[in-house]
Amino acid sequence: MDYRQLGDSELKVSAICLGTMTFGQQNIEAEAHAQLDYALSRGVNFIDAAEMYPVPPRAETVHRTEAFIGTWLRKQARDRVIVATKVAGPSRGLQWIRGGPVLNRQHITAAIDGSLQRLQTDYIDLYQLHWPERNVPMFGSYAFDPRNERAATFHRAKVTRCFCGWVESPNPSILLHCHVDEDATRNGNQNISRKYIAIVFSNT
C-alpha cells in the first residue's frame, strides 16, 4: 500500500480511503466490521464517514455509520487509523439533523461532539464540511453559476483592501473573498465589475 502525506499535516494516509456510507443501510454492523477489518489488513488506514450517513439519508438511520465505526474503532489501536468525518451542510432538507443543519459555531460544535461520541474516540483526524453554505456545482453540475447563489449568503462589496485573497468587510459577521468574474464582465453583466467582489461566506 502506498501512503501519502495529508496536506501539510504529519498524517500519512493510505492511497485508498475506505468509504463507509453504506454502513447502516446496505450493510449491517457485522458486515461493516468485516469490511473495516479487511481494509486494515490490506494496509488501508484511512476511513471516511459523515454525520448524515448512511445514504440515502433518512431519519430512521441517521448516524448509524459513525456508530458502527465506533464499536469497531474502540477495539483498535487508535493511532493506526486516520478517521475523517463531516458536518452536514444546509439546504438539503435534513430536518432530523438539529432541526436542519446550519454552518455556525453552535451547529458545528454540536456536530463534532455527536461524532466523537458515536465514533467512541476523543479526537477526529480530519474534519470537513460535507458541503458549504454557498452555492456550489454538485451532483452532475460542472460549472459555477452565480445566478444560483443563495440570497442568505450572497454579498457584494467594494474592494477597499485585499490581502491573501480576502478583504475586510464592514460587517464583522461576514467573511468576504476576492472574486473577479471577467466572463460576466465581458458578457455585459453590469452587476459584476472588476472593481467589486461577489462573495459568499458567512461565519455567523
Task: Outline the structure in words.
- With 204 residues, the chain is an alpha/beta fold.
- The chain folds into 2 domains: 3-129, TIM Barrel (Alpha-Beta Barrel), CATH 3.20.20.100; 146-202, no CATH class.
- It contains 4 helices and 12 strands, in the order βββαβαβαβββββαββ.
- Helix 2 crosses helix 3 (105-119).
- The N and C termini lie far apart (42 Å).
In short:
The protein is of the alpha/beta class and 204 residues long. The protein contains 4 helices and 12 strands.
How does the SSE layout of this entry go?
Elements: E1 3-5, E2 12-14, E3 17-19, H1 29-41, E4 46-48, H2 64-73, E5 82-87, H3 105-119, E6 126-129, E7 155-158, E8 162-163, E9 166-167, E10 174-177, H4 182-186, E11 196-199, E12 201-202
Parallel strand pairs: 3-4, 4-5, 5-6
Antiparallel strand pairs: 1-2, 7-11, 8-9, 9-10, 10-12
Helix pairs in contact: 2-3
The helix/strand order is: EEEHEHEHEEEEEHEE
Mean pLDDT: 77
List the domain count as a whole number: 2
> Low-confidence runs (pLDDT<50, min 5 residues)?
152-204
CA-CA gap between termini? 42 Å
Strand content: 15-25%
Q: Radius of gyration, rounded?
A: 20 Å
- The gross shape turns out to be globular
CATH class label of the largest domain: Alpha Beta
CATH superfamily of the largest domain: NADP-dependent oxidoreductase domain
Q: How would you classify the helix and strand content by structural class? A: alpha/beta
What's the quaternary structure here? Answer: single chain
Number of strands: 12
Largest sheet, if any? 4 strands, parallel
- Helices, by number, come to 4
Neighbour order of strands in the largest sheet: 3-4-5-6
Q: What's the CATH architecture of the largest domain?
A: Alpha-Beta Barrel
Helix content: 10-25%
CATH topology of the largest domain: TIM Barrel
